[in-house]
Structures are given as structure tokens and as C-alpha cells.
Specification:
- The structure is a single chain.
- By secondary structure, the protein is mainly α.
- The chain has one domain (about 5-200).
- About 80% of the residues lie in helices and about 0% in strands.
- The chain has helices at about 5-10, 15-35, 45-70, 85-105, 110-145, 150-170, 175-200.
- α5 (about 110-145) packs antiparallel against α6 (about 150-170).
- It starts with a helix and ends in a 6-residue tail after the last helix.
């Protein structure tokens, strides 16, 4: 099932749509926590603080949107309140581990420098993905006349991507070559995640 069709299916069923929003919220929250974890103890940049704050706000915003469906749904990030919980939890974690392994080999970095490099490349890959995912989702929400909106997130994610590119330009002259390899890793993990969600959603029958 291709992504657009999968999302169309998700938004038709309130309980599944709530889980989808909760799953996105979980991932934004996990991303924010990873950014914070990558901070240098003293040399943390303003832009890094901004990213962590905005990703946390996205997690909060998506969680609040669930209230438009049913305030009683998806109050936590427990497995039963997420779509494909195992794949969802593994996605960012696996990307982080595989990216760190690749970057260490490519740049031979100290522990603190590796953290910063991982922040740059992993966040870049996630922003590229968000730039694809959220507009497709918003398009479906608009066509379905849904009360749920993700337009504000789209604008901020576009800004994040621009900021990541600026930071990567400062980090390495040939960052694009390495970014392609990180994007390839992310693509494989994203496919696993979408396939796991598709498997969970496919058997459901809609009226």
C-alpha cells in the first residue's frame, strides 16, 4: 500500500487516526530528546536549543490534536496507543546507531564531536523525511475537511531543514556525499516502519 493511500485509510477511522497522531507525537518527542542528548555540556548552540524546543512543541501540538477526535484517546505513549509500536520505537533509535557507526568510520571523531555530527546528519535525514510526510498528510486532511491541521509544523520543519543545511556546510565541505549515505539508511528504516503500520492497518474494515 503506497503512503498516500495508507494515510487516506488512517484518517477514515477515528481510533486509528488518533493512534497515528500519537505515533507522530511520540516520534517528535523522541527526536527532541535525542537532540537534547547530543548537546555539548557547555558549547550548546542557540539553534540546537531552538530545534529541541520546537520538536517538543510539535509533540505537544500533535498530542493536543487528538482531543479534536476524542479527548479520552491516546493519553500516553504506551504500545497499545501507538501504531506499529515496535517499529516506531526502533526507527529513530536504529537510525541513530547506524548513523553513528557510519560517521565514526567516515570522520574518526571524539565522543563529543560524534554526538554533534550525529545531531547534524540524523536531524537532517529526519527533516528531509518530515518535508515529505507532513505535506502529504495535510493534503489528505484538507480534502477530508478534517478539523486537524499540521500546517504550522510544515513551516517549522522547512525552516529546520534550511538551518541543518547551513550547519552541515560549516561542518564539512563534502557533507552531501555523507548525507546521501545517511538518507539511504533512513529510507530503509522508514520503509520498515511504513510496512509495519500498513500490516496493522490493512486488515481493518471500514464502513
Amino acid at each position: 500500500m503506497e503512503f498516500h493511500h495508507l494515510l487516506k485509510r488512517i484518517v477514515q477511522e477515528d481510533s486509528i487516526h488518533a493512534k497515528w497522531l500519537n505515533t507522530l507525537s511520540f516520534m517528535e518527542n523522541a527526536g527532541a530528546r535525542k537532540i537534547s542528548k547530543c548537546e555539548h555540556p557547555v558549547s550548546v548552540t542557540l539553534i540546537q536549543l531552538k530545534h529541541a524546543a520546537e520538536e517538543h512543541r510539535h509533540a505537544y501540538y500533535l498530542k493536543k490534536q487528538i482531543g479534536k477526535i476524542d479527548p479520552e484517546l491516546c493519553k500516553t505513549y504506551e504500545n497499545k496507543e501507538l501504531l506499529a509500536p515496535t517499529a516506531t520505537r526502533q526507527y529513530l533509535h536504529s537510525l541513530d546507531i547506524k548513523a553513528c557507526r557510519y560517521l565514526q568510520e567516515a570522520f574518526q571523531l571524539s565522543k563529543e564531536d560524534l554526538k554533534y555530527a550525529a545531531y547534524l546528519f540524523v536531524t537532517y535525514a529526519i527533516e528531509v523525511r518530515a518535508d515529505e510526510l507532513y505535506p502529504v498528510y495535510q493534503d489528505i486532511l484538507t480534502k477530508e475537511s478534517s478539523r486537524i491541521m499540521v500546517k504550522s509544523i510544515i513551516l517549522e520543519e522547512e525552516g529546520h531543514l534550511e538551518e541543518m543545511i547551513n550547519q552541515l556546510n560549516e561542518f564539512s565541505a563534502d557533507w552531501k556525499l555523507h548525507a546521501e549515505n545517511i538518507l539511504a539508511i533512513e529510507k530503509g528504516l522508514h520503509s520498515q516502519w511504513i510496512n509495519a503500520i500498513t500490516e496493522e492497518v490493512s486488515p481493518l474494515k471500514y464502513a
